[in-house]
Design goal:
Helix content is 32%, strand content 19%. Strand 7 and strand 8 form a beta hairpin. It is globular, with a radius of gyration of 17 Å. Strands 3-2-1-11-12-9 form a six-stranded mixed β-sheet. It has a six-stranded mixed β-sheet with strand order 4-5-6-10-7-8, with no helix packed on it. The structure holds zinc ion.
């Protein structure tokens, strides 16, 4: 069993609750699909916990923007403000932060991994198969089928797991997006079918459900978890932070 987490966005309360849930389930293999920082108030704590607990971590577009301003092209004002906040919190001038910058600098936005003994290799990307760092495969992308088809064509594995949109669910090739919800929290893979699978977001869900989300995969079945965490504390930390817009705290309450 492997756990796939993504889009932690410097939300330490959510990440600690996700790891507590994984500990209770006895899951030790954890991969992170990127966007460790951005939006939230605890970039240092989240980076350090990911480094301690995840075997693999990808580069997300917010992580890339922290490393290089040019990658922030197209970011909205709130997102840019949060990148500045993260850069101050992880001040690269300070020697105690150098290991964090070295670690961030090694991350890549796509990687193939073998989830377990005898299982087929799976592809991990932050955003999409053809643009692993930045393209949004939103639930409504099936309205532009050529965009979705181009991504299935670009996928060099049968199974691609991604994050980035903060909307958990899946595209089976040839079908609409299936949203993962409490009533639809399991995908039993059909043999020979191709899938693009969104694991959801730990730190800033946007599907109207404020509970943190992530996915488990055992080689045959993907299962989505939603777990309550102390959203109020996470919101409060953003409101108290010097230089983060309050709206980034408020949106956590709504899960938008
Ligand atoms: Zn994100």
């Amino acid at each position: 069993m492997i756990a796939l987490i993504s889009d932690l966005h410097a939300n330490i309360e959510a990440l600690e609750a996700a790891f507590a849930d994984l500990d209770a389930l006895g899951v030790e293999r954890i991969v992170c699909l990127g966007d460790v920082i951005g939006y939230g108030a605890s970039p240092r704590e989240v980076v350090e916990l990911v480094r301690a607990r995840c075997q693999v971590c990808l580069l997300g577009n917010h992580d890339a923007a922290l490393l290089d301003d040019r990658e922030a092209f197209g970011f909205n004002e709130r997102a840019l403000t949060a990148i500045d906040f993260s850069r101050r919190a992880l001040d690269p001038e300070q020697e105690r932060n150098w290991a964090i910058w070295d670690w961030l600098g090694e991350l890549v936005p796509a990687m193939a991994v073998n989830p377990g003994n005898g299982d087929e290799e799976i592809q991990l990307v932050h955003a999409s198969p053809r643009d692993p760092l930045a393209e949004y495969l939103m639930p409504g992308v099936t309205k532009t089928p050529e965009k979705l088809k181009a991504n299935f064509d670009a996928a060099d594995h049968r199974l691609t797991f991604f994050g980035h949109t903060h909307h958990p669910g899946w595209f089976a090739e040839g079908a609409e997006f299936a949203r993962a919800t409490d009533d639809n929290d399991r995908l039993v893979l059909e043999p020979d079918r191709r899938y693009l699978i969104n694991v959801g977001s730990v730190g800033q869900p946007r599907d109207g459900d404020p509970r943190l989300g992530y996915a488990l995969f055992d080689g045959q079945t993907v299962r989505w978890r939603r777990v309550e965490y102390d959203v109020a504390a996470s919101r409060r930390r953003i409101l108290d932070a010097d230089g983060l817009p309050d709206s980034l705290g408020e949106r956590l309450l709504a899960g938008r």
